[in-house]
Amino acid sequence: MSSARRLVLLCLAFFAVIASPALADGTLRVSMSGPGSVTGTGINCARGLSGAATGDCVEAFVDKKVCVLDEHGKPECEMVAQGTALKATVGVSGFVFDGWTGDCSGRTCDVALSDDLGVTAHFRDAVAPSVSLGGVASGAVVRGNVPLSASASDNAGVTRVIFAVGGTTIVDEQPPYAATIPIAGMKDGNYDASAKAFDAAGLSSTSSVPVTVDNTAPSVGVNGPASGAAFTGGTTQTWTLAVTDTTATSVKCSVVPLGTPAAFGACSGGAGAHSVSGKPHGAYVFSVRATDAAGNVADVTRSFSIDTVAPVTTVISDVEDGATTTSTSIGWSFSANEPGVSYACRVHPAALTPGPFGPCSSAAGHVAAGFAPGVYAFEVRATDAVGNAESTPIKRTFTVAPAPPPPPATVVDPVTPQPTPSHTGTGTGSVLSGAKSSTAAPQIVVTLAFSFSSSTKKQTKLTSLVVKGVPAGSTVSAKGFKKTNAAGIVSLKSLTKKPLKAGSTITVTVSHPAMSSAIKTLKILPRKSPVVTTQCQPPGSKPKPC
Fold it and tell me: Where in the sequence does UniProt note compositional bias of the Low complexity kind (predicted)?
């Protein structure tokens, strides 16, 4: 080729270069959501579970000019955009590649840059957390509060665990995962206890077991001796038991002396009965305790006593033991050292063999009347509620003496003798004018008995006040007290309710239509026992010393 032709071609080529479009370029920026990596020409970018991407995530590309000679040997040139094939690789087990942002598909994305370009590779968590519930066994019976725990793990981390029993839930966001579920207000029945674990992607897994909620104590029925029952020695006491509950129960029994803590053990008749025999004298408590599978407890108790000791009777009489009286009506009152006692009485001439005991005239007293002069014995015997009777009855002897004869009639002579009057008709004699005769009324003789608990400078507290030896048909009166048709022993308990001031008095009058009244005055002394003085008051007269 000649030199001239070469020059022409070089000029044409130069012109083509000068006349071609300007070179184009672009920058490729790679980002990721989720853990993984992206590689390509000039790109080696990676991201972990958290934080930003690291490595070479940006690459600049310059368009490349490509020229070819046409059929005439003329060069034809164009600018070709440069790029790379991007490959996505999962970085953490359990994640999957979830595609690119843009039109790419598959794990490899071919990009050609004619301008700046951003590409995002998406990695998605595809595995749910693993979780295992603890703290409660499958089929457990629970009540009150249920403690739950859980072990949970995830490839990307657990964000929270939700614990639940029925519809009651508690969330725990920090390991170790645990919660206590309150179920006291839940209806008894079957529920699921569960732990549900979540990861950052919202994936979840649940571990659960069936449980039975039982907040109700067993029902315990006891048949047998009621509380307060008393028995004689050498006897057997038996109680039958009926226990019901929605879950399994255990039943235990205890018999201990009153005031001693219960000592529960197996019931003698299993869950259905319990018996004890031969307990010594004393008070006892029988207890039965039923416990269900949830731990609910129901107790029922019965108190009872074994009584091998006879009661002891105390007697208060109108007359002291061995005393003599002219009264033909005598009363006795009595009490015992234990409740529930019944009494039997008899009154008989002391020299004769007594007859059988019979009912007393009242529940805690006896009155006998119509005594002829002589020596008599009164006996009372107490029997308690279980049949223990006094081996030796309480006995009081007394003598009834004849009433003294009335004093002789007194004839009062007039100061001036009067002539004997004349009479008509028949007659038996004469009476001096102005003569007066009388027969003295028998005097009431009673005893005012008292006891007191304390006597100070200012006051005395009486604990009892009774009038003894009141003739039948008498009236006993005092300020604020009156009892008609009285006999025997009359209690003035209503007058002892309040302490009595020093110097104060209580005057008790015992009157009878056919007898001279007795007036007893009790005076309160400072720091001393009260004293009693007596006055007598014949009918129609003023009181005077007896």
Answer: 415-425
- Evaluate whether 142 touches 210 at the Cβ level (below 8 Å): no
Exposure of 94 by Cβ count < 10 A (0-12 exposed, 13-18 middle, 19+ buried)? middle
Mean pLDDT of 339-360: 94
CB 154 within 8 A of CB 199: yes
Burial class (CB within 10 angstroms; exposed 0-12, middle 13-18, buried 19+) of 159: middle
Boundaries of domain holding 102: 3-125
**Token pair recorded at residue 385:** 């509620």
CB under 8 Å to 442, separation ≥6 — which residues? 326, 403, 404, 514, 515, 516
Task: Please state, in angstroms and rounded to a whole number, the distance separating the CA atoms of residues 116 and 118.
Answer: 7
**What is the percent of the chain where pLDDT is above 90?**
62
Please identify which residue in the block is written with the tokens 């009285």: 486
pLDDT number for residue 406: 63
Amino acid 545: pLDDT? 85
Phi and psi at residue 30, to the nearest 5°: -110, 135
Strand residue runs (E) in 245-341: 249-257, 265-266, 273-277, 282-292, 297-306, 313-317, 323-325, 329-336
| pTM across the whole model | 0.55
Which amino acid is it at 466? V
Please report the beta strands in 311-446, taking only residues with DSSP state E, as ranges in sequence order: 313-317, 323-325, 329-336, 342-349, 358-359, 365-369, 374-383, 394-400
The verdict on 137 and 187 lying in the same domain is yes
Largest CA distance in the chain: 225
Query: What is residue 433's predicted lDDT score, i.e. its pLDDT?
Result: 27
Rounded Cα distance between 385 and 232, Å, is: 9
The whole-angstrom separation of Cα 229 and Cα 284 is 10
Please indicate, yes or no, whether residues 85 and 190 belong to a single structural domain of this protein: no
324-351 burial code (b ≥16 CB/10 A, e <16) = ebbbebbbbbbebebeebbbbbbbeeee
Count of CA atoms in the C-beta half-sphere (13 A) of 355: 7
Interstrand relation of 229-231 and 297-306 (parallel, antiparallel or unpaired): parallel
What are the angstrom distances between the C-alpha of 445 and each of 154, 378, 485, 507, 516? 108, 21, 16, 15, 9
Q: Looking at residues 67-96, what average pLDDT do you find?
A: 86
Of 104, 125, 146, which residue is a domain's last? 125
Q: How is residue 339 annotated by DSSP? A: S
The residue with tokens 């005239």 is 361
Beta bridge partners of 33: 122
174: helix, coil or strand?
Answer: coil
Domain end point (choices 156, 181, 213): 213
Q: Cα Rg for the chain, rounded, in angstroms?
A: 60
339 belongs to a structural domain: yes
Mean pLDDT, all residues of the chain = 86
In a domain, 201, yes or no: yes
Separation CA 264–CA 398 (nearest Å)? 58
- Structure token digits, residue 462: 């009486």
- Residues 116, 145, single domain; the answer is no
Six-digit token string for 481:
């007290």
Does any domain span residue 405? no
CATH number for the domain including 333? 2.60.40.1220
